[in-house]
């Protein structure tokens, strides 16, 4: 399985890693630069200020995230359940192999949201215990509930000139990366990989540029946009198809999706294809 890491721990490691890098300077506010990479997440304010249209397709589902303490250890296994009403419940193991707490992501139909946000902690934990078939024993809620509407979204433009920069005589450019450029359903856990794929592609394209080209070169930025859009298109279509399958209530489709998801979990090559597609990596050399 993938690593499940708390954001503050990741941020501490990133701060440590950059502290003694002479080429990295942490700034408190935006500075003038030939290229500004906007990676502010899906609700990016800068993207809106730049007037970039963000095409959003709501899935009609909301993710509720929280944490649980479980009676039994999770044994470092990530678990998912698909219910007849189209909900998807995921338990992601925390605190190492001996741990007994899990991060919860519960994608639930929009209309059920008020009920599950407003009910008391015990009722909520009991509902999750019921969906998870008691596989981790009695569950106890240990964090507040937070919620996000689930959507597939894609920015129409991923790069451009900073407004007004031409007037100063120093042309400045911007590019979008990560959730500021695209979001998908968390179903297959590929959101972060997609952002890492953007970073890798942009770094490679800029790193390979001839010395006379600036990092804010529109031709290179357009190359980045084209490359990532075409790499992510099949993945977006796959996630969309899976989401459609999971949201249907007909029993043959339920049987098919449970069979399909077990197959997906057991299928090393398909899972690997999805992750590599998200990161924009070439297929591994098998020889
Ligand atoms: C419920 C849920 C479950 C998910 N589960 C998974 C999963 O299992 N696996 C997976 O890979 N992905 C998952 N994702 C998706 C994943 O969280 C995102 O794809 C990923 O976090 C995107 O990273 P990002 O850096 O682009 O944006 P974000 O993680 O949103 O980070 C953007 C950061 O920029 C900061 N920021 C915003 N504006 C400014 C500014 N002006 N100046 C400075 N900082 C600013 C924000 O505070 C934030 O810290 C899930 C998403 C949801 C909603």
UniProtKB/TrEMBL annotation:
InterPro entries: FAD-bd (IPR002938), FAD/NAD-bd_sf (IPR036188), Ubi_Hdrlase_CS (IPR018168), UbiH/COQ6_monooxygenase (IPR051205)
EC number per UniProt: 1.14.13.-
Keywords of the record: Oxidoreductase
A GO MF label: oxidoreductase activity
FAD-binding domain: residues covered: 31-230
Protein name: 2-octaprenylphenol hydroxylase
Species for this entry: bioreactor metagenome
């Amino acid at each position: 399985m993938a690593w499940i890491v708390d954001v503050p721990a990741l941020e501490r490691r990133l701060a440590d890693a950059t502290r003694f890098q002479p080429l990295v300077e942490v700034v408190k506010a935006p500075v003038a630069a030939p290229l500004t990479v906007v990676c502010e997440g899906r609700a990016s304010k800068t993207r809106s200020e730049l007037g970039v249209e963000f095409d959003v397709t709501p899935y009609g589902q909301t993710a509720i995230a929280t944490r649980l303490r479980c009676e039994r250890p999770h044994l470092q296994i990530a678990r998912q359940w698909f219910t007849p009403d189209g909900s998807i419940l995921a338990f992601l193991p925390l605190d190492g192999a001996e741990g007994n707490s899990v991060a919860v992501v519960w994608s639930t139909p929009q209309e059920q949201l008020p009920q599950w946000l407003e009910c008391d902690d015990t009722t909520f934990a009991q509902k999750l215990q019921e969906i998870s078939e008691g596989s981790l024993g009695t569950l106890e809620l240990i964090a507040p509930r937070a919620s996000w509407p689930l959507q597939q979204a894609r920015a129409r433009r991923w790069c451009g000139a900073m407004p007004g920069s031409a007037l100063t005589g120093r042309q400045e450019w911007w590019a979008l990366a990560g959730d500021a450029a695209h979001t998908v359903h968390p179903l297959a856990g590929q959101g972060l990989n997609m952002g890492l794929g953007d970073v890798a592609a942009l770094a490679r394209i800029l790193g390979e540029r001839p010395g006379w080209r600036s990092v804010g070169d529109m031709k290179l930025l357009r190359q980045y946009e084209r490359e990532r859009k075409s790499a992510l298109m099949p993945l977006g279509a796959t996630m969309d198809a899976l989401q459609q399958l999971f949201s249907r209530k007909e029993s043959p489709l339920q049987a098919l999706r449970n069979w399909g998801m077990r197959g997906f979990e057991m299928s090393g090559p398909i899972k690997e294809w999805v992750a590599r597609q998200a990161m924009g990596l070439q297929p591994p050399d098998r020889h």
